[in-house]
Amino acid sequence: MIIDAQQIKAVIFDLDGVIYRGQTPLPGAGDVTRWLQARDFQTYYFTNNSTKTRDSYVELLAGYGVSTDVDHIVTSASLTARYFTDNGLLRATVLVVGEAGLPAELREVGVRVVRRRGRKPVDYVVVGMDRTFTYAKLYEAQQAILSGATFIATNRDATYPIEGNVIPGGGSIVAAVATAAEKEPLLIGKPSPEAGKLITHMAGVEPHEALMVGDRLETDIEMGRRAGLLTSLVLTGISSRQEAEALPPKSQAHWIVDTIQQVPDILEGRLALNEGAR
Predict the structure, then answer these.
(1) Structural domain boundaries, residue 24
(2) pTM of the full predicted structure?
(3) Which of 201, 242, 195 minimizes the C-alpha distance to 222?
(4) Number of domains forming the structure of the chain
């Protein structure tokens, strides 16, 4: 495939480590997104974080000078809700381990959400980031899975970037449940290529007409490459240039940039392709 940045029509941004880090906006985020909107690029925001609803992300981004709406926000929680909708599973009973955004997105599509087992069998256990995770929650999830519930993970990000540091991510919670239940989950969020394909379908563009901008090689860039998208690694989050350049050519990002402020340089053809990418 001939890679032509000037064919890009849609840009998909990860959030944590790209638009902001912790509670601090990263330089240029508002300016770049306004630049994109002024030039009619379709702009989406895709996070593996399942703790917030899409409405709350709209409000959060507005506080950082980024204007968008719920139709251009994709979270691992909203993707999980879509999984239940698309597969006709709205009568299922789902035990959730996760923060407010996850049960809210599931309830919005009509799924019955519980926090512990009851008389009615649990059909699915859905696990995401949960900063109030306890042994009791682990036990409930383990027992439901051992009793036959299907295990779903919103993401497997081991860490989460904050100002000057990282903290345990949703993948740490998923790993605990997987270990206790001796069962690996169905993964809904990045790096599943289906997530990238869904966004390009929503945008009405071909995969090579979309650019995924993310800070994490094993999720953002891996998803983009697997879904046939163009990709840019930004170095304000988790992954480093050295890690990126050590990957096999088919796994490397097409562009590596220091900050989001260089995205216009990619789109206007001023930034050379990463020589290691294929």
Answers:
(1) 5-48+191-267
(2) 0.89
(3) 195
(4) 2
Q: Which of 16, 123, 130, 220 is catalytic?
A: 16
Q: How far apart are alpha carbons 87 and 133 in whole angstroms?
A: 29
Which of 167, 187, 207 terminates a domain? The answer is 187
> Residue type for 167, please?
I
Which residues, listed in sequence order, are joined to residue 231 by a DSSP beta bridge? 212
* pLDDT one-digit tens code per residue, 159-189: 888 888 888 999 999 999 999 999 999 999 9
Catalytic, 16? Answer yes
Same domain, residue pair 175 and 82? yes
CB crowding 159-188: b at 16 or more within 10 Å, else e = bbbeeeeeeebbbbbbbbbbebbeeebebb
Q: Which of 4, 14, 69, 157 is catalytic?
A: 14
- 134 is a domain residue: yes
Are 32 and 88 found together in one domain?
no
Q: What are phi and psi of 255, to 5 degrees?
A: -135, 150
> Which pLDDT score, from 0 to 100, does residue 276 have?
81
**Contact assessment for residue 132 and residue 53, using Cβ atoms and an 8 Å cutoff:** no
CA distance 250 to 259: 23
